[in-house]
Q: What sequence folds into this?
């Protein structure tokens, strides 16, 4: 049984207001760094075999904090292996990249992304279809499971929509239902893969107290029933990056090369609808 710990990156200055996508140079802000360090401390007792991360800076910085946590488990060489894999990188939002979510919510495509994501392809030459994003991300998980072995426990540091798509696959639900799943910054989602089926063991765990639940509920009444494209700032955002309008939004950036092996993913399949 392979255990996969899916971690969304911590907060950035853009999270909740701008759909950063693959924009380069989007780093964790002070609160995001604190989130990553706290999560690293929480995971220190867990014996990890590897960390796989999106190439975008915010994910690499989150992964580095987990690897550097005092007491973190190490491999035989004395350090925890960190691998960069494009296939768990953010969805390619095409022409939506860098736009404010308040503006994007007025685009006719927004309703498709909300109600029929399996039919959504983001505009522009670099735009990706959501089914293609799910296909390459789930494929990456399956390949890492096989490479690391059935007894492995490892981290994948990725992005809100990507993790939601992986969770939907693990539950055997259609991609059109993935907007019912919420993944907050620096949350922990755990899936155990067995020979017959995956088991979702933990979802969107931020380790916080229950006080944030009422705050989140009030926020949901204010913004309506739309899911946050890209993931949103979550309760931990605490209004720090307000201004997303109907859908306070995502967060993510592009990636600088770093120490660690770099795996370039397979070319996505053609859009499925």
A:
């Amino acid at each position: 049984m392979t255990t996969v710990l899916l971690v969304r990156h911590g907060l950035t200055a853009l999270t909740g207001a701008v759909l950063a996508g693959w924009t380069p140079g989007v780093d964790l802000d002070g609160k995001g760094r604190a989130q990553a360090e706290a999560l690293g401390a929480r995971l220190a007792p867990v014996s990890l075999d590897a960390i796989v991360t999106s190439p975008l800076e915010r994910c690499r910085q989150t992964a580095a904090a987990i690897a550097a946590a005092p007491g973190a488990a190490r491999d035989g060489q004395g350090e925890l292996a960190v691998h960069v894999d494009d296939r768990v990188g953010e969805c390619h939002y095409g022409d939506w990249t860098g736009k404010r979510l308040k503006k994007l919510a007025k685009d006719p495509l927004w309703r498709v992304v909300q109600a029929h994501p399996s039919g959504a392809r983001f505009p522009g030459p670099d735009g990706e279809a959501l089914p293609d994003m799910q296909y390459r991300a789930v494929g990456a998980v399956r390949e890492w499971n096989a490479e690391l072995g059935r007894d492995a426990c490892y981290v994948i540091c990725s992005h809100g929509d990507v993790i939601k798509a992986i969770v939907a696959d693990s539950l055997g639900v259609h991609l059109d239902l993935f907007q019912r799943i919420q993944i907050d910054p620096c949350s922990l989602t755990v899936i155990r893969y067995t020979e017959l089926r995956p088991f979702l063991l933990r979802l969107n765990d931020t380790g916080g107290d229950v006080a944030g639940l009422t705050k989140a509920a009030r926020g949901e009444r204010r913004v309506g029933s739309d899911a946050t494209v890209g993931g949103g700032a979550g309760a931990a955002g605490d209004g720090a990056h307000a201004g997303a309008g109907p859908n306070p939004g995502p967060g993510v950036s592009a990636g600088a090369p770093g120490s660690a092996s770099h795996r370039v993913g397979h070319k996505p399949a053609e859009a499925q609808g």
